Amino acid sequence: MGTGKKISALRDRVAQLLSRVRKTQDGITALDQSIQASTDRLESRMQESNDGLRQMGDRLESQLRQNNETWQAQTNQLSEGFAHLQEAVSRHDLAIEDMLDSWEDWSGKQETLFDQVRNLVSASRDEEQEEACRREEALLRLIIGYQDQLDSLSRAASCFPANDQADGVRQEDTDQGTIRPEAAWSRQITLATEKMASSLALAGLQRTGRVGEAFSYDLHEALEVSDTADPALDRRIADVLTCGWIDRGKVFRKARVTVWRLVAEEEETK
């Protein structure tokens, strides 16, 4: 009887252990399922993030393409305008030649005809100079407009994820021979901006409006004011909304900026 009870107790103990083992196995299975579900959610979020980056790249590429098409159309318009101007000059030259031929026929009215020719030439040159000035101003505004667009694209490109290296290429991408699209676009925009700035400088255009420089009513237009308690920042530029330009010593466009304004610490606390 004592041995039977021991065997029965041992069987109960074994049954309890087996029950605990099954429960442990069930817990491990549930944990594996939870880990798998978390992994699936993480992969889904990473896929959504990659899709978002690709869509951003597509929008930026589309905007660049539209800007290029607009620039090409406006360039064609300017070319046509210059062609019309050349035709007008040719017509004026023909008119002068006709007058000279008439002067040979009417030798008795030489002085009068000379006066007419001189007046016509003077008027023609004045018109050409005025037209050239208008064309030059329109071209200058067009170029500056594209510079503003490049600045906007540069600011937009600076919003890309900052986990790349300083040259815009990740080490793992370099090892694989690939470059992230947003990094390549950022580099292309930077190169285009530097090239445009160099070309404008060679053309006699000087850019104005930089963060930290002293505010001047002759060069800047204050659109916003920011308070500061630092005396060193008083009346200095806090942000540049639109850069300004100086054309051969004359202000062509003032820079639109945000300016620091010195306030007392008590007022700033309020």
What does this molecule look like?
With 270 residues, this protein is of the alpha+beta class. It folds into two domains: 57-203; 205-270, Roll (Nucleotide Exchange Factor Grpe, Chain A, domain 2). It has helices spanning 2-105, 110-157, 171-176, 181-202, 265-269; strands spanning 205-208, 220-228, 237-242, 244-247, 250-253, 255-262. The strands form two sheets. Strands 1-4-5 form a three-stranded antiparallel sheet. The chain has a three-stranded mixed sheet with strand order 2-6-3, with no helix packed on it. A hairpin with a 2-residue loop joins strand 4 and strand 5 (250-253). Helix 1 runs antiparallel to helix 2 (110-157) and helix 2 (110-157) packs antiparallel against helix 4 (181-202). The radius of gyration is 38 Å and the shape is elongated.
Question: What features would you highlight for this structure?
Answer:
5 helices, three-stranded antiparallel beta sheet, 270 residues, alpha+beta, elongated, Nucleotide Exchange Factor Grpe, Chain A, domain 2, single chain, 69% helix, 6 strands, three-stranded mixed beta sheet, 2 domains
